[in-house]
Design goal:
The complex is a heterodimer of chains A (198) and B (120). Chain A is an alpha+beta fold and 198 residues long. Chain A has helices spanning 33-55, 62-89, 119-134, 137-151, 157-165, and strands at residues 3-9, 20-26, 98-104, 108-117, 169-177, 184-193. In chain A, helix 1 (33-55) packs antiparallel against helix 2 and helix 4 packs antiparallel against helix 5. In chain B, helix 1 (32-47) runs parallel beside helix 2. Chain B is globular and about 35 Å long. Chain B has helices at 32-47, 64-78, 94-99, 101-106; strands at 2-4, 8-13, 18-25, 51-62, 84-90, 111-115. The chains are: A alpha+beta (198), B alpha/beta (120).
């Protein structure tokens, strides 16, 4: 089947052969928005708790404790934002599930979400991605905050916060099957560097 | 005045001009609680006390919409030249160490006080 593929940013096609991964699948149309929103928080906290438990070491120290709190907070924030985004922008006409995968390696954590969006949403999103890639993220972040205050809008802060405050690397892949012109599958990849303990 | 939900509370003590956020806040646009918090923060800024204190010392989690909300509050206060702003934060809460510096970038004379003991 013929497929159109577009890639933006830091997107790894060949995933590292990570020994560990965690996958959650959701059906976006199965629950009312309020409940799904609550589930995003529960899922993000679960992913964070699970990961920290996997990384736990028998060696206890204040530094170690602080590092684990840091990882837990970062995973919870990033996973929550990715799930919120996929919920906000998913094509509700489709029954495709939304997926979030978490891979963990020695020096980084990889988040991969996949969901369907409609072609107009994809175009707007691609324009925004291009803007992020062409700008200084720190400057764009502050500009976005000022613009949001001016225009009474709230858009675009989640990805910029990941880039700016969490030093994450972001990448996207858009795929469209020739047979299904009304929908595009978007895969978002976030790479979070992880400091290895001394 | 208090806005209270299962996971968080937002309280305002007018006598101290202190607004206090506690718990985990995952807001989404348009929900009644979000609009209520926006209205409260606008009302506080409009009352123009000499100093407004934003106490976040017990706020464990805030999503990006919440960060946007606080930023708008700071910008609103910044417009009122006679109002000073103090943000009380906690050094042991990672998101606060990472993200609150942006509020200072929006309002350079904002005073950011980082508490360093463990949160309760």
């Amino acid at each position: 089947m013929q497929k159109t593929v577009e890639v933006f940013g830091d997107f790894l096609d060949a995933l590292p052969s990570c020994p560990e991964q965690l996958v959650l699948n959701f059906s976006p149309s199965n629950a009312p928005p309020q409940k799904r929103w609550k589930n995003n928080g529960l899922s993000a906290d679960f992913l964070a708790d699970y990961l920290v438990t996997c990384l736990a070491s028998s060696e206890e120290s204040n530094d170690r404790e602080r590092q684990q709190a840091e990882i837990k907070d970062s995973v919870s924030f990033i996973a929550n934002e990715l799930l919120e985004n996929s919920m906000k922008f998913s094509n509700t006409q489709r029954i495709d599930s939304t997926q979030i995968k978490l891979y963990f390696d020695i020096d980084r954590i990889l988040f991969i979400t996949q969901n369907s969006i409609c072609p107009e949403t994809a175009r707007t999103f691609q324009t925004y991605i291009q803007k992020i890639m062409d700008s200084d993220p720190e400057e764009l972040y502050i500009t976005q905050l000022e613009e949001n205050a001016e225009n009474h809008s709230d858009s675009g802060l989640g990805l910029l916060t990941m880039l700016n405050d969490y030093s994450a690397r972001l990448g996207w892949k858009f795929e469209q099957d020739a047979e299904y012109q009304d929908t595009i599958t978007v895969t978002t990849m976030v790479q979070l560097p992880m400091e290895t303990s001394p | 005045m208090e806005i209270s939900q299962e996971k968080y509370t937002v309280t305002y003590q007018a006598s101290e001009a202190t607004v206090c956020f506690e718990g985990s806040i995952r807001l989404h646009g348009g929900e009644p609680d979000y609009l209520e918090i926006v209205a409260l923060l606008n009302q506080i800024a409009e009352s123009e006390p000499p100093v407004i204190t934003l106490n976040l010392e017990q706020l464990q989690f805030l999503n990006s919409l919440g960060i946007s909300l606080l930023s708008k509050f700071v910008i609103n206060v910044r417009k009122r030249k006679t109002v000073q702003m103090v943000v009380r934060a906690h050094d042991e809460i990672p998101w606060q160490r990472k993200s609150l510096k942006n509020l200072q970038r929006l309002m350079p004379n904002l005073q950011l006080n980082l508490l360093t003991t463990k949160p309760t």
